[in-house]
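Service request form, structural biology core

Requester: graduate student, group of Dr. S.
Request type: structure prediction, single chain
Budget code: on file
Notes: please return the result as structure tokens.

Sequence provided:
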Amino acid sequence: MKSAWMGALLLAGGASAWPLEISYADFYGPMQRAAKGDVGLARLGFYLTDQQNGRRCAVLGGRVETLDRHVPIAITADAELRLPYDEGLSLDKTKVVLELGDESQCSLSVQVMAELSPGLLQVATLEQAQGDMQRLLEQMSGRLGRLFLPEMQGVRLEMLAERGEGALQVQGRRQTLAWKAHQLTLDKGSLAAFSGGTLQLDSPVLRLTPWLPAR
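Core staff response, request fulfilled:
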């Protein structure tokens, strides 16, 4: 990510330890802020990002540790960390222990995103998710930060397949799409033009993220 607002908010600190230990409070704080508003389809996702090349760090496993228990955490195929949102854990001296695939210099990052149900996508769902993610971005930015937050240009779909094709369709009209590098972007104009229609893709969608203007 070139910017903290290219769909992600960078949290403080990097680390090179292997395994890596992070305070649970670093996760709980953003989750608590996100939970304060009604953001519909939007949510936060946590990753470790390599400070050198911006790629996601490989995480082999992880757990939440307190003085008296160890709770495994879920890690997705693209290395997203899915932790429990538990106020009781935040009050303890709780830590998150992650087993890294190598000893890269990694930083914790949090991504605004939305998940989509499998199958044929309704353009109306994409439009709703866009609005929900915009609200969550504003909520995470705070009163002052939202003054400098750029408006979303549209949505970015993270695809399972590296390359592929799809199409927007509504009332006999069709717009063919193609993507590469696992990324498909749809601007607000295209969404509006096919509002009420569908998006057909030949690959599953991993998640939806904001498409923000480059800086």
